[in-house]
């Protein structure tokens, strides 16, 4: 069956090649039937048993038998010690295929696949291809026993752009699946093209050591408000990095990944996976940039949406026009919550407490001014060692470092505010050890000398949280082309600082990503975000105070899709994952399972915990599985600005 869907009014002037890319031929997925070996006689039986003995002696019998032990259904194989785990998994061991073939990976609950798709969906060829890494967390065994309970796959994207769906599903997929209903749904994610284990990967540097040296210079440069003239230095640095990327022969060129990495390609890749799985429509849960991917898919193929939750909403119009101003609408509301709730809980729970919120705010600004003029030198204890086994060098805590720490804390106030209060209190007495401890615990960067360089055409040896160089590649491909001069960027940076005193200077880096970018995507969309009627209404979910995706963005996006609904959670931080709420989890579950939409646009839920409240992540015996999953998500997920790669 061939489906040729031309969404009414979603995009202007769709050329014939784009219509072909929008059209997804339905192919019947192959049936993976297990071969059954019939023993035709005692001789054959003897040969087979002898072969098994030989494998046993080599220590490879588990690897040989695992595909037969692991059923293609949702059944688990249980022994006395619990589920049987698969052998050590490596993505390179899977041979890419143009049809979706699942392989056991990571645990007895997971399957993985490498799907070979065209680099250019508008003009497919056999010579220019992309291989997508896909992972599935299967529904529980209950679904296999009760076929009426199983409702198919739900796709999810963790955000970015550049975030790894593989890493995120392995990290917190089980908790997300509990919210959906683990007996009902498989949870499926993938590394979008150019990211993680999907190849070719978008990596501008040929060696990781080169990247490390480049990133180290960033801390010296500082934020755009650190000192006079830094804004122009930042512009020049951004331009230089863009040239590194656009002159890389592995990325540029007519058939290069940079010309084929816009969100339209990610959405078309996702459609291909859906159809390869034998599904007619999409069930989807996207966070942050994942809301752009979801919204783009819905605009291109509105009749293919069965369920869609977009959480922490990027403004679609602003994203595609490239303005990037509205995203700081509520940033200072989140920062003010630090002062208000630190005062509310008192000195026992907030180390930066003062008698009034305004006094706490004054202390913070005084500390920033002090460190701007006199950075803090930290001689680290000799009992500490780096990942390379050496004694860490002295560290200088600068105004810019403190600014970036505060900006990152706004993404996840419930988790981070108590810790940064301790850091700030120590910095007032020029004690930088708590700062070192806090920033080191949040870093996932490897030692510079130990960093592993893997060719971009080869899957990673271990899943990574994301691919930072993919962020500007996707962002700048989607946005209308608006080159800025140095003086224009300086005006933009000043505008952001006027909008947000808390993070404007840091978030100016967002638009720096596109300075010097000239390569345009072959598949370039001109969205008209209005009157898009999906097969089932979309549910937009947002905190009332989100530091980078404000509530107004969710409402703007909802107006583009008649019949959609907005669920407002009274909470602080980026996406509802930053502010755990059983109420929100129940409503998301009700939407997926029963199609329930919240009435009106008022506050639909409250977070279970305010910033600085005690016993964060605690658990009692009376808590059910859903509440435990919500609390685990709040503890496990680390939400931070991905475009800086930190």
From TrEMBL:
<dbReference type="GO" id="GO:0016787">
    <property type="term" value="F:hydrolase activity"/>
</dbReference>
<dbReference type="InterPro" id="IPR051601">
    <property type="entry name" value="Serine_prot/Carboxylest_S33"/>
</dbReference>
<feature type="region of interest" description="Disordered">
    <location>
        <begin position="1"/>
        <end position="29"/>
    </location>
</feature>
<feature type="domain" description="Peptidase S33 tripeptidyl aminopeptidase-like C-terminal">
    <location>
        <begin position="503"/>
        <end position="599"/>
    </location>
</feature>
<feature type="transmembrane region" description="Helical">
    <location>
        <begin position="37"/>
        <end position="57"/>
    </location>
</feature>
<keyword id="KW-0812">Transmembrane</keyword>
<dbReference type="Pfam" id="PF08386">
    <property type="entry name" value="Abhydrolase_4"/>
</dbReference>
<dbReference type="InterPro" id="IPR013595">
    <property type="entry name" value="Pept_S33_TAP-like_C"/>
</dbReference>
<protein>
    <submittedName>
        <fullName>Alpha/Beta hydrolase protein</fullName>
    </submittedName>
</protein>
<comment type="similarity">
    <text>Belongs to the peptidase S33 family.</text>
</comment>
<dbReference type="InterPro" id="IPR029058">
    <property type="entry name" value="AB_hydrolase_fold"/>
</dbReference>
<keyword id="KW-1133">Transmembrane helix</keyword>
<keyword id="KW-0472">Membrane</keyword>
<keyword id="KW-0378">Hydrolase</keyword>
